[in-house]
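Dear support,

I submitted the protein below through the web form. The confirmation email said the job was done, but the results page showed an empty box. After a refresh the structure appeared. I'm attaching both so you can tell me whether what I see now is the final result or a partial one.
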Amino acid sequence: MSPAAALLVAVGAAVGAPARYLVDDLLAARVGRGFPWGTLAVNLLGSLVLGVVLGLAARDAVSEHAVALVGTGFCGAFTTASTFAWEVVALAETGRWRRATAYVVVSLVVGAGLAAAAYGLASA
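What the results page shows now:
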């Protein structure tokens, strides 16, 4: 990775992490913290954005620098596997197995579906 690409990753991450925090905070204020809506929203949106960026890159419609900035930097910091895992455990530990299961299924199935659909549309 070139120094320029590394800098772009850092810039994207510097935007993605606070954006994740703000989305989570906004959703928690509106719907409460009984279900991890914020993390679900950022992970699904991040999957969609990453699919678009990589689809565009597959047909050379965006540069490697755009992939570094948006795909690796922004999406990498905007989405979160660790918070997702912790929230699944927290739901399960408090006996909310149905919510935990729904969260896992929706996150994985819808997230992968969004990424695949976005990639397919953007690379066409």
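Response: this is the final, complete result; the empty box was a page-load delay. The two ends are 27 Å apart (CA to CA).
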